[in-house]
């Protein structure tokens, strides 16, 4: 078998088994919300998160470093592969591919957070990453790209590992948000929204869906038309962040009550000593 025959075999293999699941004009089944493949992807991400939580005390120093670097590499490589795919198939435009969507920018922030162990970035990845990526996982903007197209995997890897990064830093690296974290995230996010709205107006894009609703199914379909739904988005974002902070608020409240109860018992015991 000569080189030309080997090359032909490789070409035939790619043409039959790989290329059909890469092309932008995908001829396979489109993405279907909550079908077997969607649920399987959600189940895989959930399982990964549960494994991290269950084994959180088994991570040691080198183990932690390797895990952070691996997740950061997956996020970066996956994002670069998406931009490469979009450029190769003439899908890359400034109206669609600038890293201005919350999850697009949080891919890079999550990777940097993992590499640097940055608490300042963690605050944003925890609130915006989990909240935004969860919405994207439940109602992904996958369009015609159902399983097993490249975009199907790219979408779930991207958003899934944003959540995994935030959960890991919380349960393994012991980081946690505070009320000040909520305030910082709220203020800076709203400044960012204003900037992106200006960019959308300037270049005719719709990043963050600030200028109109997305063409695919999403929670925004349940809300009023533009611009009223922006107020609902703001309220929904605040509610999501408060919900994400609830476990820490509950823990702090319980700890405070327990400490106060212990002090009262200790004070009563000391008074008894003088009787």
Automatic annotation (TrEMBL):
InterPro entries: CHP02206_TP0381 (IPR011737). Keywords: Membrane, Transmembrane, Transmembrane helix. The keyword Membrane applies. The keyword Ribosomal protein does not apply. The chain crosses the membrane at residues 31-54, 66-85, 97-115, 124-146, 152-171, 183-209, 229-248. NCBIfam families: intg_mem_TP0381. This is TIGR02206 family membrane protein. It comes from Candidatus Desulfolinea nitratireducens.
């Amino acid at each position: 078998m000569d080189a030309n025959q080997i090359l032909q075999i490789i070409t035939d293999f790619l043409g039959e088994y790989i290329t059909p699941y890469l092309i932008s004009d995908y001829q396979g089944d489109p993405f279907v919300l909550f079908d077997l493949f969607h649920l399987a992807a959600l189940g895989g991400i959930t399982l990964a998160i549960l494994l991290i939580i269950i084994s959180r005390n088994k991570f040691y120093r080198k183990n932690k470093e390797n895990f952070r670097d691996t997740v950061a590499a997956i996020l970066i490589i996956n994002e670069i592969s998406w931009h490469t795919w979009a450029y190769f198939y003439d899908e890359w435009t400034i109206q669609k591919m600038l890293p201005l969507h919350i999850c697009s920018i949080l891919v890079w922030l999550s990777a940097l957070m993992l590499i640097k162990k940055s608490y300042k970035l963690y605050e944003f990845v925890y609130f915006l990453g989990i909240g935004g990526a969860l919405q994207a996982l439940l109602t992904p903007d996958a369009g015609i790209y159902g399983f097993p197209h490249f975009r199907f995997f790219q979408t779930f890897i991207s958003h899934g590992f944003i959540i995994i990064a935030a959960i890991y830093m919380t349960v393994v690296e012991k980081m946690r948000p505070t009320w000040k974290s909520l305030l910082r995230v709220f203020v800076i996010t709203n400044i960012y929204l204003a900037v992106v709205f200006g960019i959308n107006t300037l270049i005719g894009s719709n990043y963050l869906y600030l200028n109109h609703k997305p063409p695919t199914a999403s929670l925004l379909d349940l809300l009023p038309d533009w611009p009223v739904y922006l107020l609902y988005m703001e309220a929904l974002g605040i509610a999501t962040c408060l919900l994400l902070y609830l476990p820490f608020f509950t823990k702090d409240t319980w700890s405070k009550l327990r400490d106060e109860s212990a002090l009262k018992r200790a004070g009563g015991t000391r008074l008894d000593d003088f009787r």
